[in-house]
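Changelog note: in this version the structure field was regenerated for every chain. One regenerated record is shown below for reference.
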Amino acid sequence: MALGLEGKKAIVAEVQEAAKGALSAVVADSRGVTVDKMTALRKEAREHGVWLKVVRNTLARRAVEGTPYECLLESFVGPTLIAFSSEHPGAGARILREHAKEDKNLELKSAAFEGELVDIAMLATLPTYDEALAKLMSVMKEASAGKLVRTIAAIGDSKEQEAA
C-alpha cells in the first residue's frame, strides 16, 4: 500500500523523535525473518526500552539528518530495521545480536554511539549500570581486603621486630 505525503511525514517525525532520546542505534536487515520471530524480537525490544521499526531507506535518511545518527546513512541499503536504545546504550545491539545468532536471516549492518560508527559486538558487550556497579564494588572489595591484609602483616612484622 502506497504511503501518502502525510504518512511519510509522520514516519519521519516518529523516527526523529526516537533518535532524539536515544543513546545508541543499530541498523539491521530483517529480510527472511519470520513473523513469529519478528514479534518476539519486538516484544523483547519493548521490554528493554528499545524502539524498533522497519523503515524505508529514503525516510530513514531524512529522519536521521542533523542527528548524531547521521553517520548511519550509508547503512540504509536494502530492507532496513532500525533500533534506538533509550535506557541502555547496549540494549538494542545485545537484543539484535542474540536474535541474529538464532536466525541467520537477521543481518546486522552497523551501529552508532555518540555520533560515531562503532562495532556492534563492542556495543552489545557494554555492561548495564547494575553490572558495572557490581564490578566496581568487587574491585573495591578486593582492594580493601588486600590493604587490610598488608596492614595486618605490617603490624605483625613490627611486633616481631619489637620482640627481637
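Spot check on this record: The beta strands are 24-29, 50-55, 80-85, 107-113, 116-118. The two ends are 94 Å apart (CA to CA).
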